[in-house]
Amino acid sequence: MDGLVNSCPLLDYVAEISQPGKFLLVDVGCSGGIDRQWRRMGPRLRALGIDPDVGEIERLRGREKNPRISYLNAFAGIAAEHPFAVKRRGKIDRDRDPWTRLSTPRYMEQVYPKASKVTEKEKRSANLWREAQLADPAAAVVIPEYLRSADIGSVDFLKIDVDGKDFDILNSFDRALSDLQVLGVGIEVRFWGSAEETDGTLHNVDRFLKARGFELFNLSTRRYSTAALPSRFNQRAPGATESGRLHQGDALYARDLGSDLYDEWAWSLDAEKILNLAAIFAIFDLPDCAAEVALKFRTELAKVCDVDQVLDRLTGQVERKLSGRSSYVRYVERFAQRPKTFLGTKNPFPKMRCAWKKGYLKWKGRMELLRIEGRGGEG
Predict the structure, then answer these.
(1) Along the 379 residues of the chain, how does pLDDT read in single tens digits?
(2) How many angstroms separate the CA atoms of 159 and 34, rounded?
(3) Cβ atoms within 10 Å, residue 140
(4) Which of these, 42, 46, 47, 208, could form a disulfide with 21 (CB 3.0-4.6 Å)?
(5) For the stretch 82-121, what's the b/e string if a residue is b when 16 or more beta carbons lie within 10 angstroms of its beta carbon?
(6) Contact 184, 195 (CB under 8 A)
């Protein structure tokens, strides 16, 4: 999923103080593995990855060293009698889909013809579903029901990216979002589609989640060029291109507990859940939102962590400190006393320095995450 940062000082602190399994991630469409940035939580992280690709799930199970991360080989679906499924019945699937006119499928037709054999890596990177052995679609799992059967009563972050039925799966969580006290949802959204209320377009996802107490905090965009005039791909695999029409992106929705609108629900949460929300904001490079939560719920959070440490780590993230630590008090004092120092600049040298620090932290964080992953995610 787009938007997660490799270097996240708050998660390092959370890993130091946490008891095992206090944060649950449910990743629907986990091909390629769960985003390794979550592993920075160390023992706090517990995760369930779900995907229909038989070979990929076997691969992930074989290489997984963290006993608190498990994988389920299945399609995710929605109950046939669910009101959304009933409303969708008979509607055009993926109406106004421009896919067949784009350069990406044209590339795959040319480079991966049906007669050719492709590697497992190529299947994953190019989304070559026709080449993969998949689970039985007739045995699709309704995830909230599965979680209940597994006696799971709390989920912190739900990620959905299945290249198709994302909105159906999201609708299967309609009541479960509240029952499971879900704090954040990351979902792939489409910028094309019809005006039908059952279509999985951004405006329908937005309306659905806002009706259930979530706000949009981040949105990435991916462009796809038409086959009429192909653009260069962004990566070393067919997918999004440097130019072209807006096609899809990843949306981050979360509980805006800094707002007084949700106080009744917010105060029903325990301190561990509140800390988990701050961690979600931090890992998506929203340390300001995490700080707002930490300040508002300081008394409650003090039961499980040092709030001043939390604020200092978040400040280190804002300032891109190589050590990961800074002083929250001095930082906000500077804003109050010398606010003009926060203005942007046209001077290329400070910009170059910031870009270097950002790039270095990204590289350093990736190296640290690879080591954590190699040790089984224990930090």
Answers:
(1) 999 999 999 999 999 999 899 999 999 999 999 999 999 999 999 999 999 999 999 999 999 999 999 999 999 999 999 999 999 999 988 899 999 999 999 999 998 876 556 666 655 556 665 567 899 999 999 999 999 999 999 999 999 999 889 999 999 999 999 999 999 999 999 999 999 999 999 999 999 999 999 999 999 999 999 999 999 999 998 999 999 999 999 999 999 999 999 999 999 999 999 999 999 999 999 999 999 999 999 999 999 999 999 999 999 999 999 888 899 999 999 999 999 999 998 888 888 888 998 999 999 999 998 998 887 766 5
(2) 10
(3) 18
(4) 46
(5) bebbeebeeeeeeeeeeeeebbbebbbeeebeeeeebeee
(6) no
Hey, how many other C-beta atoms are within 10 angstroms of the C-beta on 360?
13
Which two three-digit tokens encode residue 251? 């949306």
Six-digit token string for 133: 């052995």
Distance CA 3, CA 224 (A): 19
Distance CA(372)–CA(39), nearest Å, equals 7
Go through the domains of the chain in sequence order and give each one's CATH number: 9-280 (3.40.50.150)
In the structure encoding, which two tokens stand for residue 7, read together?
Answer: 């270097």
Q: How many residues does the chain have?
A: 379
Strands in the chain per DSSP E: 23-28, 45-51, 69-73, 157-160, 184-190, 215-219, 222-224, 245-254
Q: Which of 117, 98, 95, 94 is nearest to 106 (CA)?
A: 98
